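Case study.
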Amino acid sequence: MVEIISAGFGGQGVLTAGLILAKIAINNGKNVTWIPSYGSEMRGGTANCNVKIDDQEIASPFVKNIDVLIAMNAPSVEKFENMIKPDGLLIVNSSMVKGKKYRDDIRIVKVPANDIAREVNNPKGLNITVLGAFAKATGIFDKDSFIEGIDGFFASKGIVNPANRLCFEKGYDLLDN
Amino acid sequence: MEYVLMKGNEALAEAAIRAGCRFFSGYPITPQSEILEYLSWRMDEVEGEFIQTESELAGINMLLGASAAGARVITSSSGPGFSLLQEGISYLVAADLPAVIVDVMRYGNGLGDIGQSQGDYWQLTRGGGHGDYRVIVLAPASVQENADLTYLAFDLSEKYRHPVLIASDAAIGQMVEKVVLPEMQEHDIDKFNWSIKGCKKGEEQRKITNLLYYMGNYDSFLIDKYKSMEGNEQRWESIYLEDAEVVLVSYGISSRVCKEAVKVARKQGIKLGLIRPITLWPFPIEAFKELSDKCKALMTVEMNILGQMVDDVVLAVNNAYPVYKYTTVKDVPETEIVIEKVKKIILDEEV
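After joint prediction, the assembly is written out as follows.
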């Protein structure tokens, strides 16, 4: 079982990032649940989704102990860092979260997602950049299946955007082999 | 089989279309608004009618009209909106009309809140409106069952000329899982010998009104109708009843946790079993006949504080076993707590 929370401001694509992970998971024959945060959210406030991936049937869709936290802004780090399992992974958008001290019993991957997305002229692609880092850091599925999953997800919505691939690759290449 | 990823609410809406449903009238309310949102464009594609009404009251009454004309119809609501449908449901029952009505349960009394809940069990299973009725209630526990049971609901509703309710909840409605969608079928609006079409001169007049007013054998008609539903439509899933010392009884989102709890408990050598009612009414009393002489007690696990399903379990086992409950309000029940309570039951400690 891999338990993931993807969190950030509304508009940063955190729910989409979770849905793409769900898509990649079922393409790989896994069971998956995805559920959005569902409180009295406000425009411009934080949004998040819980994703669980498993070979077994999944009981509750709600994540209690996080394996991987994708945090696109500072409030998301504050809200969820404590729920990460020891040795878990925090992927943080370092374009927006700066000068922070993190727990020392978890692995931190910093992705300057806004900067990279802007660099390749694809400002909405920051979530895809983070998925690149996610793919490399977790190794949960192979790189090609991430690429197919991302392209397939957007193709099903009638969107073809080659710059997403650039974002993904740059995120992926941030980490050493 | 081709899997697609879908939200529970959307899978439910698509299954309705595939069951031949071509009429929706209702009003939005969280956490079921995706059903309206989806049907608002999907009904157009299949040349059905989608009406966002001025209130739930208008919605349920338009539904009655479309059902009287022979269409397959659906409406959906939650919380206070679902309460507003009750008068109309009573009228649908009175007029012997099919309809599928969805309650995506949210928690609380009054306005309550928008999170998942199983607090409408009594309202759903006892006949939430005035009068003397009960309706078939189907309780999905996954996005797949949201599709499958909605599809089935139309057939059952037509078979008995009786409303069928879907007892979903905010978690099942909001979550995305993989789902295999059912086959597309067409419904012939003119196939019934009872529906009204507008009376041309010389044709036999049909009317849709309360059966009570013109049916001579109304008592025996009702007795037979309910007996037939109770006899034929009990549905459930059970695991490990053959040797279970404690049996959980749970449906919907809570039953998923119970299934996990049974697996974990069995690994620890605890003989735990589960009955998952799929029909909340008729309550699957047949399932309880499978309990073995090793059974010591039962425990319902449900998302309401009163333990609303306990009554039905007590009746089903005819006081042969003690019935405990583990109830939660805002959070989905937890596997570890289920197992803790089961251990206490086995040791005869206070639960």
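Observations recorded in class. Chain A has a mean pLDDT of 94. The CA atoms of residues 10 and 47 of chain A lie 6 Å apart. We will return to this complex in the next lecture.
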